[in-house]
Amino acid sequence: MADKIRVYELAKENNMAAKEMVKLLNDEFGLNIKSHMSMVGGSDLDIINEYFDELKGGKEDKKPNKNKSNKKENKNHKKNMAKAIEEEDFEEFEQKPKKKKRKKKSKNKKTSKVSKKQADEKKDDGIIEIPETVNVKTFADRIGENPNSVIGKLIGLGVMAGLNDQIDFEQAQLVALDFGKEISLEQEYDAIEEQQVELDYEDKEEDLVKRPPVVSVMGHVDHGKTSILDSIRSTRVTSGEAGGITQHIGASVVDLDGRKISFLDTPGHEAFTEMRMRGAQSTDIAILVVAADDGVMPQTVEAINHAKAADIPIVVAINKIDKEVADPNRVKQELMEHGLVSEEWGGDTIMVPVSAHTGEGIEELLEMVLLVAEMRELKANPNRNAVGIIVEAQLDKARGAVATVLVQKGTLHAGDYVVTGSSSGRIRAMFNSLGEAIEEATPSMPAQILGLSDVAEAGDMIYAVEDEKLAREFAQRAAEFKREEHLKAKANTNLEDMYSDIAEGELKELNIIVKTDVKGTVDAVSQSLVKLSNEEVLVSVIAGAVGGITESDVLLAQASNAVIIGFNVRPTQGALERAKDNNIEIRTYSVIYEAIEDVEKAIKGMLDPEFKEVVLGRAEVRDTFKVPGAGTVAGVMVTNGSVPRRAKIRLLRDNIVIFDGDIASMKRFKDDAKELAQGYEGGIGLNRFNDIKVGDVMEAYEMVEKERD
What we know:
Layout: E1 4-6, H1 7-13, H2 18-27, E2 39-41, H3 42-56, H4 70-86, H5 90-95, E3 111-112, E4 128-130, E5 133-135, H6 136-143, H7 147-156, E6 166-168, H8 169-178, E7 183-185, E8 188-189, H9 191-199, E9 209-210, E10 214-219, H10 225-236, E11 251-256, E12 259-264, H11 269-277, E13 285-291, H12 298-309, E14 314-319, H13 328-336, E15 351-353, H14 362-376, E16 379-380, E17 387-396, E18 400-409, E19 412-413, E20 417-420, E21 423-431, E22 440-441, E23 446-452, E24 461-465, H15 468-488, H16 495-503, E25 509-516, H17 519-530, E26 538-546, H18 551-560, E27 562-567, H19 573-581, E28 586-589, H20 592-604, E29 611-627, E30 631-644, E31 648-653, E32 656-668, E33 671-672, E34 675-677, E35 681-686, E36 697-705
Parallel strand pairs: 4-7, 10-12, 10-13, 13-14, 14-15, 25-26, 25-27, 27-28
Antiparallel strand pairs: 1-2, 3-8, 5-6, 9-16, 11-12, 17-18, 17-24, 18-23, 19-22, 20-21, 20-24, 21-23, 29-30, 29-36, 30-34, 30-35, 31-32, 31-36, 32-33, 32-35
Helix pairs in contact: 1-2, 9-15, 11-12, 11-18, 12-18, 16-20, 18-19
């Protein structure tokens, strides 16, 4: 059987818009293509490929036009017929309609790749595509059978359904088999994906021109990210120079001897990953700032993991080399442990010693960024409708919805109609990175725009469209989709749910983030987990580090569809709340083999814990007292939830577990207490444990029996 391909993929291969390809296949080749998600294959695909091969070979000067003469069409039809006869497929060819107009796209939340009026139209291999749920009449039409006969088959299966009742795919499949027909599940795409498929396309190679790189600056707090940008500003800006650098709009532009670099002034790698989580690749290069007097710190490791997950190159800026205690070689050594090896030491990571304070190395850093950009051959087509990404957005009381856009393809003009997610509008005004009014923004250039109907979401794509009606239609479908998705949002990051995904072939990779109390445990756990991979599932440890589980870890888990596993560490309150809101699973252990067994059982489908842990509350140690006969008693303030006397207690120091056991005593003033509620103070003694210090956190929890489905 010949290979098959979706229409939008065929369009990309031949540098056409999906919409144009649908029209071409219907008007010129006489196919009944319903949408860009339809499949073509067999002799049709051979003829189409032959046609494009001729075009590329220069045998035809331009694409066929719908207004070409009947003579040309007949010639094309004869050519196709000859091909079909040659492949002994004449009967099938004759049955295909020569011309069909494309139906207007449905405005539903989900758009099928085939129209519901397909009737008895089949794929080339005889398999009929059916939605996940379908009413009986539509199903009967699809498979070309009498609706009453279909109802009779359903009754035989014990399903009482009328013409307008819905049946699921499994029921439809059984009925189809009774009729000797084969069906497959019809794929759908959502309203956000629809914008990308309908409004974006791959450009022809000859239309692409060089564009500036887009750079994000990342690293540990206080290592000098802002100082480096300030230093760049002071060395590269000329008063009144349009190519200078500013931070008025959340993005910056640097001009290095006529060569531009765009910087995204994001507040850190969390925002960077927020964008990637929405499917937007906003950055070409990451500058990782590491202080030469401090070395690799927890947020440095987080930044490395986020950049690697986004698959973008890293240029390291070793900052603060002007300090006496600076040790660049120590930084390089520590970075090696995280997979970044300096070019000087035989690796492929560019590392530049700099001083934001004196300006030393800043010019070289910018030169290295441009070198990496040159190697990546960054290009875009400026002569098309613009496609970009929302960097940041807010509501301005005086100007309404304001958004900073980074143009990625095409040129954005003042006056363009645009759509981004569920917002649309016409650009009333546009400003560059200096805050000056401009008429257009080319690829890699940031611009602040006014005129959107609502505040856009950072990370969403923005598209320029032909008219206001089209922009509003796309936005309305996206708004409906987002509302429904919000109601049923659920991340596939629960070990207990993963087996079903694996069994259905939906999960091919199990991503895990490992956080531990000591470095050696990270390596041991990572190696053990990776060894659990089998032919069906690849277990991948995408990040591993020492320290408590933070919001950044949860964010990375969201972006990578990962489970977080901790050893002798606990999540921060913010991480717990964000994980709960986004259905991200955090599993903590004190014994390595227990985690390995859980993951192994999840892969094999045997994970079925009878109990689950419920965190009841947290209390902060404000003071400690030595009590004769009782040891050390902590004076605590309950900061979240409550701490019952019956609960188990973990004592956390910098989110590392140093005790896990029972409460020995609990008092409120001088009286024994059964529970300390949020906002109240009290005294807590731990069973046979006295190493309690001011600033420690007590986490109360209990194990409860899990309800079985």
